[in-house]
Amino acid sequence: MDLSFGYGALGSLPKLRTCRVRRESSYDRSGGNADYILVKPGETVIFADLPGAGVIRHIWLGGGAKEGSHHRKTLLRMYWDGEPTPSVEVPLGDFFGVGHGAAGSFFAAPISMYQAGLPTHPARNCWFPMPFSAGARLVLVNEGTSPYYHYFYVDYEEHSAIPEDLGRFHA
Known about the structure:
Oligomer: single chain
Number of strands: 12
Helix content: under 10%
Number of domains: 1
């Protein structure tokens, strides 16, 4: 099974694959415009709980808080295959390439942060492929003192199985 892992995989675009493409997002379930999840100070929130086998292909996160350095005080955790401890546990800004609690623009092939509009609410993208065999769980932890407004979508593929020789993403 070729899952076309890599940044320059445009040559594999015409290859037919047997998977189902899915998206988990913060859309407003009432049909209104409140398309975010509020993460209160001290709260831990699961924002994506993906079943079965698959590959996360793209993560987009928006939002922020009125508190300075909230990019350092908001943690991103990712768990693969039912593990009890996270494979990813990192401050949000650091994960997207901008450390020290700063908000700014940064662009690289697998990750980016784009600062526009509100100075505390950048858009963040991650294109690292993240395979899992028995579920994936993405979590935010607000260690700050202000509510964090979390906008997101997670694009992923559902597969019947993932090859045993694929590692898991860690950070």
